[in-house]
Amino acid sequence: FRRAHTLTVLFILTCALGYVTLLEETPQDTAYNTKRGIVASILVFLCFGVTQAKDGPFSRPHPAYWRFWLCVSVVYELFLIFILFQTVQDGRQFMKYIDPHLGVPLPERDYGGNCLIYDPGNGTDPFHNIWDKLDGFVPAHFFGWYLKTLMIRDWWMCMIISVMFEFLEYSLEHQLPNFSECWWDHWIMDVILCNGLGIYCGMKTLSWLSLKTYKWQGLWNIPTYKGKMKRIVFQFTPYSWVKFEWKPASSLRRWLAVCGIIFVFLLAELNTFYLKFVLWMPPEHYLVLLRLVFFVNVGGVAMREIYDFMDDPKFHKKLGQQAWLVAAITATEFLIVVKYDPYTLTLSLPFYITQCWILGIILVLTWTAWRFFIRDITLRYKEIRRQKQEHRHEKDKCLSNGDGHASVLEEQNGNRLRERRP
To answer: TM spans, by residue (predicted)?
Structure first.
């Protein structure tokens, strides 16, 4: 039934597109016809994928919604592959086909400069530095970390990613000017206010979802209009709730997996800044916002697939399809950045920054070796030693039973052996 339904929809859509094409006279504009043909091809593919793609772990608001984003992931990955195989100039000018205002080099905004919280030299507004930093990216930071918390579902992991990204901004501000921010912009506005408040609200939402009673009664079986409206709103909440318990220190496999998740998250965050830098997209462009919306939808599914694979590898024998696509998209974006501007990426880190990262890597490797190798060997040695002591104690206890006859016989046997020696 599902296959027949799909073929019917595809047939109707193809006929509609063909009918529209026949009705109007085809323009003699090659660029316009190319864009229109590509858009129509993508629509047909999305229609096919929404009905035929494999279902993911989420079923609300509808499985077709998540199949749609899976197909969008495929289209976006193909687009990235196409951009990757172009020259730098052609790739940047190709963005004009999406928006004619693109393809023009744009100056980067420097968020550093004057870092005085109170500027006495400015008589009209001494706090002008703070107001200059309060732009549209402040609520974007808050909502971004709120949604990331819903995806990761772990407080300490979100905080580590948030703090680590600020360290990355410190480390890479010699490559991208807009990474240069004031200290209070890094730690007060970003980590504490925007990111911290977003993580806090996200954790409160997770607590509500974990305590919420899920009763999925049919819409037409609810007698009141208020109940019907409430049921419609709850359609956009999860069908059931799974609490993520990552337990990174429980095994080496989970520790490496959590480190890999943090690494991919940080790389995807960096790709946001580097992509708009190499493709000449302004930060407020709608394509940047669409990319973030895309990652919010596909990232939640990917995180659930990764957790299911880690939590029960016998049942989930392979990693989910959306998780693989997110990893491939992140890697392809990084390859585009490397190809389009290798000079910026190869700018050497300052010596003190290099020292800090080397020290951090050594500490992480040392802790990993101690936790999963040295500590286990030490615990195993102590357990073997304890078992030997218990066995020796039980043996001595057995020999001491029988009013000392066993110990007397043992002493007599020892005396006979001494007499036989020359």
So the answer is: 6-24, 36-53, 65-85, 155-172, 184-203, 255-274, 286-303, 323-340, 352-373
Tokens of 105: 């080099």
Name the one residue in this structure whose structure tokens are 């195993």.
380
Q: Residue 39, class by beta-carbon neighbours within 10 Å (0-12 exposed, 13-18 middle, 19+ buried)?
A: exposed
Let me know the angle formed at the C-alpha of 318 by 314 and 323, rounded to the nearest 5 degrees: 130
Residue 13 phi, psi (nearest 5): -65, -40
Residue 182 confidence (pLDDT) above 60:
yes
- Cα separation of 179 and 166, whole Å? 9
267 pLDDT higher than 70: yes
Report how far residue 184's alpha carbon sits from residue 180's, in angstroms, rounded to the nearest whole number. 12
pLDDT attached to residue 208: 81
Band of pLDDT at residue 404, cut at 50, 70 and 90:
very low
Cα(252)–Cα(310) distance, integer angstroms: 12
CA-to-CA dists, residue 354 to 157, 262, 357, 366, 372, angstroms: 24, 20, 5, 18, 27
3-class secondary-structure state, position 111? strand
Q: What is the DSSP annotation of 371-414?
A: IIIIHHHHHHHHHHHHHHHHHHHHHHHHHHTTTTHHHHHHHHHH
pTM of the model: 0.79
Contact residues for 326 (Cβ-Cβ < 8 A; gap 6+) = 73, 264, 295, 298, 299, 302
Residues linked to residue 181 through DSSP beta bridges, in sequence order = 111
